[in-house]
TrEMBL record, chains A, B:
Keywords: Hydrolase. Residues 207-304 form the Peptidase M20 dimerisation domain. The lineage of its organism: Bacteria, Pseudomonadati, Pseudomonadota, Gammaproteobacteria, Pseudomonadales. NCBIfam families: hydantase, PRK09290.1-3, PRK09290.1-5, PRK12891.1. GO terms for molecular function: hydrolase activity. This is Zn-dependent hydrolase. InterPro entries: Amidase_Cbmase, Peptidase_M20, Peptidase_M20_dimer.
Length: 406, 406
């Protein structure tokens, strides 16, 4: 069994970096705080006897040697970056559960046949640099390196520049090597396990998602003397599209999600009719056909609303991550380990995207979910129970050892 | 007659300060650029032989002595601050038309009985520091000095601090002295004069307006695994209120205006359900009864929408500027001067608020409008015809000389 207290303590220590008043963490990708988090992880792994490799996307691999180091490793991991209103568990848990597995192997002097690695994937959240899971995407060949390094934040800073600045632009090529298996432990980020009082989610699939950027252009003009009937108010158009996006989500229940998370108004002055609004749309569904129908409804609805409001519209889909079926063997290993350990469980579909989604294209992959309080994530109030976190880590330990000795 | 070319040249020279690529000016209140504009105005006035007074709100008065300097002055003026997407004429024209009147009096060696002053009022736009017309409001006793100096921008910087920083926190008390009359020349900022091919708007009234600040609070949560039916999405609530605000404007045609100009989303991340949205509402009508009904519709509608969306709402009215009837004598002087000069004209109600609105509470006041292209203002494309600007300035000259010799 892994060391529950040690796992918890590392989570709390990492959570202090960028720690917020409300008990969360704000450690946006490739900021100084992200660097501090990475440095701490690297130090811990070196202390545990691991060899560190950093690739050109800043992905970090901490390797514990096996008996036969010519075998591909079994890899665990997730991400250390957070949302602006991030919690202490999203991503971080999957990374530090990997470290805890390595420490437990050390404690018990266990030699695995294949090497075992704990990994950190750069900019999984996609909050500072869209889209999400960029660097596991480059690793898996979904994006090319140039695309990855040129992702830019709202100030125009690129991932390439920021990786250099914080000293994590590594030498290793991104991808091009095989994993025996990849396992990502994660909090569920939704309410299902808690509602059904289950300890472990055996993740069989991840739902699909599409991200969009819309720019509506009208004409800025004075909020007083400009008659309503002749206005071209970009924010009124955006408001109608936001309400429609919500309706598209509601109309495709159960399971559909549709969200406008980011919006910027120009010139953003109280007595000026907004001339331009930039905003994003995120739609999701486990079934790609329905996701496609939601996409159609979005395109047609936005077009109609923009036309009615006499606005110009730039409409760009910037990302499509189709539904992911995880590897049957890996899923079975997780289910078996859970049962052997006597934990309650259920199969489930991930509502969030994860690095495991892209890695599943190049390696046998699956995920282990543990409950989180009230299903809340991407929120400073995100919480998970130390027992549940330990349970997920024990499942990870079993699945990893099994695959490493296979 | 005033000097058309000189008036145009001063407008163009002032417009260069904060000049934008699209031909407008961005000179937000109490920025370094506002200081530069003020310095230029002060230099021009001193060169024209005026004495400068700056009051504690940074209002500037450039006085040309009269025959009897114990008489209260006739004052002209407007503001030099602009919107983020400001033009070269809004406000600036009323200030520099005042300077042009003084220069024309000098050219023709005209001595007026009462002194004549050109004035600049601080932060008329209310874009950086809400509400609008703050400093003419303090002058007129609508706001006390402490309120004026403590107005803060979105970064928390106050007018008091910024006045000190740019060297325009003057010594003179704000208000407490009388004007024989006050005249403000301004571009119309709406389409009526152009549509009806009239050169001069004789402004009889200004419509009323109310400004609000709303904060909706829901719960930030993950855009993927959080089921639609349990979300508390602050941006969806805001979107519905924005659409309703627009409907309140449309339902009260003709004449009503209703605008959401400023909106900020928190945490503003693509895959986070917005937990908080702050936005402003601006409603206007020439009839205070109807404005009151619009206020009721806004309050009740917003309450209902917030409740339906399970959001908390903070609803604050931050400003009420009731409809203003201008002084009959001053209005008649403007109409008479216009007729004597042979310019086409019509009476009209101002859609925008102006410093003249507050000054009218403490002095006989009226306004002179000239057409602006396509009725567009608060936009870098704002344009006015040199002939129209000169015509308005000629009307101002006649009205001022008449009142100064009265
Ligand atoms: N796990 C997680 O929060 N991923 C962010 C990417 C997404 O929005 O699904
Ligand atoms: N004239 C002008 O643009 N004033 C700003 C105040 C308002 O919004 O009415």
């Amino acid at each position: 069994r892994i060391n529950k207290q040690r796992l918890w303590d590392t989570l709390m220590e990492m959570g202090e970096i960028g720690g917020t008043e409300k008990g969360g963490s704000c450690r946006l990708a490739l900021t100084d705080l992200d660097k501090q988090g990475r440095d701490l992880f690297v130090r811990w792994c070196e202390e545990a006897g691991c060899t560190i490799t950093v690739d050109k996307m800043g992905n970090i691999f901490a390797r514990r040697a096996g008996e036969d180091n010519s075998l591909p490793p079994v890899v665990m991991g997730s991400h250390l970056d957070t949302q602006p209103t991030g919690g202490k568990f999203d991503g971080v848990y999957g990374v530090l559960a990997g470290l805890e597995v390595i420490r437990t192997l050390n404690d018990n002097d266990i030699k695995t046949r294949a090497p075992v690695e704990a990994s950190v994937w750069t900019n999984e959240e996609g909050s500072r640099f869209p889209p999400a899971m960029v660097s596991s995407g480059v690793f898996a060949g979904e994006f090319d390196l140039e695309y990855g390094l040129s992702r830019a934040d709202l100030d125009g800073k690129t991932m390439g520049e920021e990786l250099k600045r914080i000293g994590y632009a590594g030498d290793a090529d991104v991808g091009g090597r095989s994993f025996k298996a990849f396992f990502e432990a994660h909090i569920e980020q939704g309410p299902i396990l808690e509602d059904e009082d289950k300890k472990i989610g055996v993740v069989t699939d991840a739902q699909g998602q599409r991200w969009y950027e819309l720019t509506l252009t009208g004409q800025e003009s004075h909020a007083g003397p400009t008659p309503m009937p002749i206005r071209r108010d970009a924010l009124v158009g955006a408001a109608r599209i936001i309400d429609m996006v919500n309706r598209i989500g509601m109309d495709n229940q159960p399971n559909a999600c549709a969200t406008v998370g980011l919006l910027q108004v120009f010139p953003n002055s109280r007595n000026v009719i907004p001339g331009e609004v930039f905003f994003t749309v995120d739609i999701r569904h486990p079934n790609d056909k329905i996701l496609e129908q939601m996409d159609q409804a979005l395109r047609e609805g936005a077009e109609r609303i923009a036309e009615d409001a006499r606005l110009e519209m730039e409409f760009k889909q910037i990302w499509h991550s189709p539904p992911v079926p995880f590897n049957k063997d890996c899923v079975d290993s997780v289910r078996r380990a859970t049962e052997e350990l006597g934990f309650s469980h259920r199969d489930m579909v991930s509502g969030a995207g994860h690095d495991a989604c892209y890695i599943s294209r190049v390696a046998p992959t699956s995920m282990i979910f543990v409950p989180c309080e009230d299903g809340i994530s991407h929120n400073e109030a995100e919480r998970a129970d130390p027992d549940d976190l330990a349970a997920g880590c024990d499942v990870l330990f079993r699945a990893v050892v099994q695959h490493a000795n296979d």
